[in-house]
Design a protein that fits this description.
The protein is of the alpha/beta class. The chain contains 15 helices and 15 strands. It is elongated. It binds one RNA strand through helix 1, strand 9, helix 7, strand 12 and strand 13.
Length: 490
RNA sequence: GGCGGCAUAGCCAAGUGGUAAGGCAAGGGUCUGCAAAAUCCUCAUCCCCAGUUCGAAUCUGGGUGCCGCCUCCA
C-alpha cells in the first residue's frame, strides 16, 4: 500500500512520489515572530512534525526546513511599543518558540532560515523577476505583476477577474490611494521602500525591505541546494502551512518562483486546518487565542495532552477548542501514558530479558491508517487498543498481584506501543523515584493497621476517613478479600 | 459576488458502495461494608429531499446549515 496525501494543488489525494526516492525535501511556512505562539500555531507545528516523523518511520530521509518571518509591520509595531528594535523582538520570540516547541516534543528543523538572513537571495530573485518582466519598480517599491504569470490562481482556484479585491474588508480605504503606482490591484509588493526610522537594506531600488511573500521563494531556493551549490530547490517535494496561507501567500510564492525557474515550486502542497473557538478561527486579531504557555504553565496541561488533542482530528479539518475536548484529551492521555509506562513499572517484575520485536501485524494496521493522508485519528485507535490492554494488565498486577498474560507478549505489545507513540511524538517518562512524598512506608503501615482495627469493629466512617486521608497524600489503598490491604503511591 | 471545505451518538472522531472503528462521558449487573480493580451488559441507521443500485453514511442531482480564504494570518 502506497502512502497517499491530499494535494491542495490538485484537490485530490495522490500517491506520494518524491523526486528522490530516499530523500524528501519538505518546507513548512513557519511563524511571524512578534508574540508567543498560540494553540493554532501549536497545531500546525505538531501536524507537520508528525508528518515528518511518519515519513522518517516510513524509511525516508527528510530534510525539514522551517522559516521565521522576522521582518514585518507587526514586529515593528511591537518594537516601537516596547522601545526596542525589531531584531530584539524577533530574537526574543524565536527563543520563546524554541522553548515551547521543545516542550511539545516537536523535533528541531534541519534549518531555520530567517528573512533578515536571506536578503541577498531575495534581492537576486527580485532582480531576476524584473529582468523577466514579471516585476516592475516604481518610486522605490517593486511590485509583482500578477497578469504576467499565466498560472496565477492555480493553487487557490481563484481567477483574477473574479477575485474581489478587498472583499475580506481588511484593506483600508486609504490603502489603494497609498499605492497608486500599482498597475493592477492584485499586484503585490516584492520590495518596499524604507520609511523614516524603519530598518532598511540597501538595494538597486533604493533602501527598503522585502515584502512578505518573496522570502519563502528565496529561502526554498537557497535551503535546498546541495554542498556543491547545485540547486535542489527549484522543485521540492512538500510545501506545508496553514490553510489560511493558501491565498495569497502560497499563490504568490508559486508566482514568484515558477516565473523564474519555469518549474513547479513544490510537487505537493499540504495545508492544515485551523483551531476554532466557538466555531470561529482562533487568531490574534479576534483575541480568542490561548497561548501554549498559558496552557502548559497556567493551566498545568501536560504537553502530550495538546499533542493528543491535535492528533485526534484529521489535520485538514478545523478543530474546536473546548474545555470538554481538552478534558477528553487529558483522560485519553492518562490511558496512553499508563500503557507507555507499563514496561518501566512492571518490566523487572515480569523478568523481561530479551528484546522482543514490535508486533508486525499491528505496525501494519497503523501504517494502513497513516498511509491514508496521515490519518492520525485512525492511527491513534491502534495505540489505544494496546494501551488499554496494558493498562488492564498493569491493574491486574497491582490489584491481584499477578497476570496470566505471557511476559513476552506483554513486552512485545509494550514495545509496539512505544514505537508507534514515538511516530506521533507521544512520550511518557517514568517519574523520578527520588521525589517520593512525605509519609514513610512504616507510617503508612501504621495507618493501615489503625484502619484495619476500625474495620474490625465496623467503624467504617473512621476506616473511610483514613483511606481518604492517605489518598489525599497520593497513597492508594486496595482492600483484598480476607482483610489484607495493599497500597501503592500514585 | 468568487474559490475551497465541512455536516456521523451527549461530546470528539474514523469509515468513502456490502450492512456504523476508536476515544471521552453516561447507565446497569456481578464482586465489595463502601471503594478500587476485574468482568458482563446498554448507548447512532450517519442534516433534509429525490435518484442510481440487489445493496448507499459512502455515488448523482437538488436543498438547508456552518466554517475558512479573497492581500494580518498556522
Amino acid at each position: 500500500m502506497p502512502l497517499t496525501l491530499y494535494n491542495t494543488l490538485t484537490r485530490r489525494k495522490e500517491v506520494f512520489d518524491p523526486i528522490d526516492p530516499h530523500q524528501v525535501q519538505m518546507y513548512y511556512c513557519g511563524v511571524t515572530v512578534y508574540d508567543y505562539c498560540h494553540l493554532g500555531h501549536a497545531r500546525a507545528c505538531i501536524v507537520w512534525d508528525t508528518v515528518r516523523r511518519y515519513l522518517k518511520w516510513r524509511g525516508y530521509n527528510v530534510r525539514y526546513v522551517q522559516n521565521f518571518t522576522d521582518i514585518d509591520d507587526k514586529i515593528l509595531n511591537r518594537a516601537r511599543q516596547e522601545g526596542t528594535s525589531m531584531e530584539a523582538v524577533a530574537e526574543f520570540y524565536i527563543q520563546a518558540y524554541f522553548e515551547d516547541m521543545a516542550r511539545l516534543n516537536v523535533m528541531e528543523a534541519d534549518e531555520y532560515p530567517r528573512a533578515t538572513h536571506t536578503i541577498d537571495g531575495i534581492k537576486r530573485l527580485i532582480h531576476e523577476l524584473e529582468q523577466n518582466g514579471n516585476a516592475y519598480p516604481t518610486a522605490g517599491d517593486v511590485y509583482y505583476s500578477v497578469r504576467s504569470f499565466p498560472g496565477y490562481g492555480k493553487l487557490s482556484g481563484q481567477k483574477l477577474d473574479e477575485m474581489q479585491t478587498g472583499a475580506s474588508g481588511r484593506v483600508e480605504a486609504t490603502h489603494e490611494a497609498n499605492q497608486p503606482q500599482k498597475r493592477d490591484p492584485a499586484d503585490f509588493a516584492l520590495w518596499k521602500s524604507a520609511k523614516p526610522d524603519e530598518p532598511a537594506w540597501e538595494s538597486p531600488w533604493g533602501a527598503g525591505r522585502p515584502g512578505w511573500h518573496i522570502e519563502c521563494s528565496a529561502m526554498v531556493r537557497e535551503c535546498f541546494a546541495d554542498a556543491s551549490g547545485k540547486r535542489l530547490g527549484d522543485t521540492i517535494d512538500i510545501h506545508a502551512g496553514g490553510n489560511d496561507l493558501i491565498f495569497p501567500h502560497h499563490e504568490n510564492e508559486i508566482a514568484q518562483s515558477e516565473a523564474v525557474t519555469g518549474k513547479p515550486l513544490s510537487r505537493y502542497w499540504m495545508h492544515n486546518g485551523m483551531v476554532n473557538v466557538g466555531g470561529e478561527k482562533m487568531s490574534k486579531s479576534l483575541g480568542n487565542f490561548t497561548t501554549i504557555r498559558d496552557l502548559l504553565d497556567r493551566k498545568g496541561i501536560d504537553p502530550m495532552v495538546i499533542r493528543l488533542f491535535v492528533l485526534g482530528a484529521s489535520y485538514r479539518k478545523p478543530i474546536d477548542f473546548t474545555d470538554e475536548a481538552l478534558t477528553a484529551a487529558q483522560n485519553g492521555w492518562n490511558t496512553l501514558k499508563e500503557g507507555l509506562l507499563f514496561g518501566y513499572e512492571y518490566g523487572d517484575r515480569l523478568e523481561w530479558h530479551d528484546r522482543e520485536d514490535a508486533q508486525t501485524s499491528i505496525l501494519e494496521q497503523f501504517q494502513t491508517a497513516m498511509d491514508d493522508d496521515f490519518n492520525t485519528s485512525s492511527g491513534l485507535a491502534v495505540l489505544f487498543e494496546i494501551a488499554k490492554a496494558l493498562q488492564r494488565e498493569g491493574n491486574l498486577l497491582v490489584h491481584q498481584g499477578k497476570t496470566d498474560a505471557p511476559p513476552d507478549t506483554l513486552k512485545q505489545q509494550w514495545q509496539t506501543l512505544i514505537e508507534l507513540a514515538q511516530v506521533l511524538g507521544l512520550e511518557a517518562k517514568p517519574e523520578d523515584p527520588t521525589s517520593t512524598n512525605g509519609l514513610s512506608d512504616a507510617a503508612i503501615e501504621t495507618e493501615i493497621q489503625r484502619r484495619r482495627d476500625a474495620k474490625i469493629v465496623k467503624n467504617f466512617a473512621e476506616a473511610d476517613r483514613i483511606r481518604n486521608e492517605l489518598q489525599a497524600q497520593g497513597i492508594t489503598l486496595i482492600d483484598k478479600p480476607g482483610g489484607e490491604t495493599l497500597w501503592h503511591r500514585s
